[in-house]
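Entry:
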Amino acid sequence: MGQNDQGLASGRERYRVVPRVLVFIRHEDDVLLLRGAPDKRLWANKYNGVGGHVEVDEDVFSAARREAAEETGMTIDALDLTAVVNIDAGDQGLGILMFVFIGWSNTRQTNASSEGDLFWFPSDQLPEDELVEDLEWLLPRVLGNREAGSPLYLHYSYDADDQLVIRPAE
């Protein structure tokens, strides 16, 4: 099937998504979190995993490895898909499709990045009050999901009070 046969030119009115990756790097029982730089547009001074946009010429797995390397200086030894999240960003025609990974590393050595500062936390002692808003719910589930097998499938949206609503697949 060629590019023209993919049907995108005729589907301008369809819902479209921006693909993103989010990676939580593990070393033994610890997880690496990035505290967003104070001048970041999104999640300044909040803890999150590492990640970003998927480039036009890469798959989500390669994007996760690239983003982890760019933001931590680390090469990930193993990478597991743990969640797929469809995010309603308030535009009926455009959303975000986020692929969440757990990466495993044999080292704790990281390099500085302009994205923010990196910190290792025991997985049972996360800084809950300082996490990006969905991570208090998401992180325990994806950290424990490696044995579960299949990824979580989620939908994020916001209610009338602009509060995050997390809806797992039924």
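Residues 53 and 99 are 10 Å apart (CA to CA).
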